Amino acid sequence: MSDLPDQTVIQAHAEVIRGLEPFARENLSLLKSVEESWQPSDVLPDMTGEGWPEAVARLRQQARAVPDGLLVVLVGNTVTEEALPAYQTMLNRHPGVTDATGASEDGWALWTRGWTAEENRHGEILSRYLYLTGRVDLRAVEVTTQHLLRNGFDPGTGNDTYRGLVYTSFQERATKISHGNTARLANESGDPLLGKICALVTGDESRHEEAYKRFVSKIFEVDPSGAMVAFAEMMRHVVAMPARRMSDGGEGLFDRFSAVAQRIGVYTARDYAEIIEHLVGLWNVRALTGLTSAGAEAQEYLGKLADRYRALAERAAARPLPKRAERFSWLFGRSC
């Protein structure tokens, strides 16, 4: 199998996706209305009220309990969320789901804009929280976000919509896990406000994950072999994290951030294996019949993949993690 699909495959997949426009419209219910959605100002101190100094003081007092390692992961998650324009651009590069006018009433366009609108709140609330804590070099964080947007984002889908929807299914689950674990660790460290913030973001990611998984499930119903091959091709390379090209002007920032996330248990190799196993089971990969030869080859590969990554994760867990402290500009140059 080639690494990237040719234009004939891309266009054939796009036609299938266009035919699923009514299905996309049916699942718009997984987005909440603006009226029932939480907003950052619902959670953070009200700076227009008389009691704002006391509210900010409480926030800062609780935030002092957050360990530097968790703070690093929180900043990395914030930068990832703040790079939202790159992700909307990614979706609009995939034929079949493109918002042709920027205000189209097509079901796919309504989904993309609604998803973007909900995701936009995540970077807003996280960055405002970080600002109020006074614990991070906010300029360094902002520089990282600007670098990430300038550097761009390539999920490795080759602009194939099947692969793009597989990618978003995987990534939304990974993001849900990361924010969920951050919420848990925040509560354990003694910052319930941060725990609540991350839980709200996790709830959004969970609904978004469900939508993208449903979209791919429908593709498996309509074109099982094409879906199988697309899934396998996305998994043949490590799924690129959205913040893979983050930088603060130096080298290796993402790797250092990932090392901390792995060390404190926010997002680990075991999580990666779990996501693969979850998707393989959800999409009934091992039991599908009547596939083309390419589909059958992809099926065989996918059926063994979770065990392979689980074994790698177990071997990695058996080795002690490096104790080397990593320095971060986000923490005013402190190491953690």
Mean pLDDT: 95
Biggest β-sheet strands, sense, barrel: none
Radius of gyration: 21 Å
Proper CATH architecture: Orthogonal Bundle
Structural key phrases:
336 residues, mainly alpha, Ribonucleotide Reductase, subunit A, globular
Question: What's this entry about, in short?
Answer:
The protein has 336 residues and is mainly alpha-helical.
List the helices and strands and how they pair.
Elements: H1 7-19, H2 21-26, H3 40-43, H4 52-63, H5 68-82, H6 84-92, H7 107-133, H8 138-151, H9 161-189, H10 192-222, H11 224-235, H12 253-264, H13 269-282, H14 293-318
Helix pairs in contact: 5-7, 5-8, 5-9, 5-12, 6-7, 7-10, 9-10, 9-11, 9-13, 10-11, 11-14, 13-14
